[in-house]
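Narrative progress, year one. The postdoctoral researcher (J.K.) led the effort to move from monomer predictions toward full complexes, under supervision of the PI. The following entry was the first complex the group processed end to end, covering 301 residues in total.
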Amino acid sequence: MSQGVEVVGLYVRDQDEALAFYVDKLGFRVHTDLRNGDYRWLTVQHPEQPSFQLGLFAPGPPVHDAATAQALRAVVAKGAMPPLVLTVADCRAAYGRLRERGVEFTQEPVDRYGTVDAGFRDPSGNGWKMIQARR
Amino acid sequence: MTARAGPASQDPDLLRRLLRAKDRIDAASHEAWPVERLAQVSGVSAAHFARSFRRAFGVPPHRYLLTRRIERATALLRDTDLSITEIAFHTGWESLGTFGRTFRDVTGESPGALRERARAAAHQLGRVPACHVSAAHRPELTSAVSEKRRRVAGATNGPSGIKGAQ
């Protein structure tokens, strides 16, 4: 067995919308999609990273009371969740491809610190930095 | 409109659209951002925009724009050899005088002094994504620049009674 971090989750406003975004636009794959009443455990995986899952979780019952769920949705929608970084081989090529698919970019590719980075958000407001891998 | 106060009571869909306006300021802080333009990005009326933005992000949109410009100017002073005049125009000011005055009001030092100090203290930031570096260096602009100017003037010349007024 290998030890380490297996799942890290994001809060999203709508799991179907998030699934469509991460799978259809970013090219992730569904790893687990299980429902139990109101609860839905949904994780996706980067095709080149089989040991890690990104959870796409919706604030709400049965985990959160209404006020807490509302506060979490507000924090996500304000873009106040922690930074996320996606490593890509070619930032400009990925930017062109994702933009064509309708990804909302917040920053065009910029050369700096010896690499290239761009920024985008998922539909909920989670912000990603897309950074070209250093060779 | 609801009578409840506090950020949690704002509609998340509205917040998401306000975030889009904030992102646009971040992406092009050198451009002019009149309230009408920002309101259009967010799909709300100009009358509601400034208040909603302030409630969501804690500062009025114009003040947020100023902090981003100062932040960018600070980075250019630190990382490039552009002249102070060039930096003023690159970061969206129409006059060098306004740039210098606002910069001093916000950061407490002149652009030239900051450049010298930053260069002396040059350190390695290359491994942290640039946006997080600049966020860490974002000036804390919690009161209006004009207000700050008045307070400083009050502290220097005025009777002590007025200087803490907020």
